[in-house]
Design goal:
Elements: H1 2-44, H2 51-71, H3 78-99, H4 109-125, H5 130-159, E1 175-176, E2 192-198, H6 203-207, H7 209-218, E3 225-231, H8 241-248, E4 254-258, H9 262-266, E5 273-277, E6 283-287, H10 300-307
Parallel strand pairs: 2-3, 3-4
Antiparallel strand pairs: 1-4, 2-5, 5-6
């Protein structure tokens, strides 16, 4: 009887230890999966932020978070490891990338590329020696920093639509000044003209006025260049200059008033749109106003220097 009791005691003890090991293993896996979900959610929550913050945040989270989790994964299967850690975000960004072929200019392409690069690099490096991992991390962050600096040029490039009016003579435009008299563009020949085309329903246009005004003030001593705000009237604004003037009265640039056909004449699809017209009244640029030093593609100052 005592032998039987001893047997059951050891059996119960062994079963209890196995149960404990099994529970601990399950808890580790649950904890690991929760960490993986948290990582993917953190990357997804970056989506509403500025594109540079989103880019560098995705790069850091997927690379360093990936290495951290790969080192602590309770799963033996490498495929399960990878999909547990990166699967949610990679599937989501891949779906967006495939769907992007339905329209031009995939703005999430840099995020798509850095996501796969970061996860691939983390998968390769997580087992390496600390010194190699440190050096690789420094090189990786240098690459991410340089890419983030150059990133605005990508967005300028994909948002720029080639306008067929570029390199064409400025057509006859019906434009009026504040007094309601016809503005004679031919008298402006010999000057570089910068037009800001906008309408009163465009919030981004109005928000960009301070930038345009600062640019005008920057060139206040240069008699060869002139800045004009050109309002494209909405039906509600026709013959109601006060409805337009309330947006522009506090700025130093002169406001002109165009007729409704100007968009069609200049092939303008959206506002704000900026025109740069050279001294011979040839249209040299149609697009956004890019004055930032880190933007090299269609930079305003570069265009200006070429035509002065």
């Amino acid at each position: 009887m005592s032998g039987c009791n001893c047997y059951w005691m050891w059996f119960s003890l062994g079963l209890g230890m196995q149960w404990k090991v099994w529970v601990v293993g399950i808890m580790k896996k649950i904890k690991f999966i929760l960490y993986c979900i948290a990582l993917n959610c953190a990357v997804i929550f970056l989506s509403p932020l500025h594109f540079s913050v989103r880019f560098i945040g995705t790069a850091i989270l997927l690379f360093f978070g990936g290495i951290f989790l790969l080192k602590r994964s309770p799963f033996q299967n490498k495929i399960i490891n990878w999909f547990s850690i990166f699967g949610i975000w990679i599937c989501l960004i891949s779906a967006l990338f495939i769907g992007s072929f339905l329209y031009s200019g995939f703005k999430a392409a840099p995020i798509f590329i850095i996501s796969f690069f970061a996860t691939a690099l983390a998968t390769i490096l997580y087992k390496t020696e600390p010194k190699i991992l440190l050096k690789s991390s420094i090189l990786y962050m240098t690459f991410v920093g340089l890419s983030t600096y150059l990133l605005p040029n990508y967005y300028v490039f994909i948002s720029h639509h080639k306008n067929e009016m570029i390199s064409q003579p400025l057509p006859d435009l019906t434009i009026y000044n504040e007094n309601g008299t016809l503005f004679d563009l031919k008298k402006e020949k010999g000057k570089i003209l910068v037009f800001d085309l906008w309408n009163s329903s465009c919030g981004n246009c109005i928000k960009a006025f301070p930038k345009f005004d600062e640019l005008k003030k920057e060139f206040k001593d240069d008699t060869t260049i002139r800045f004009y705000s050109v309002n494209i009237p909405l039906d509600r604004d026709i013959d109601k200059k006060e409805a337009v003037r309330k947006f522009t009265h506090e700025y130093s640039f002169q406001t002109l008033y165009a007729d409704k056909n100007i968009s069609k004449t200049l092939h303008i699809e959206a506002v704000p749109t900026y025109l740069i017209i050279d001294k011979n009244q040839t249209i040299r640029y149609v697009g956004d106003l890019n004055t930032e030093k880190d933007i090299f593609y269609n930079n305003f100052y570069d265009i200006l220097n070429k035509i002065k």
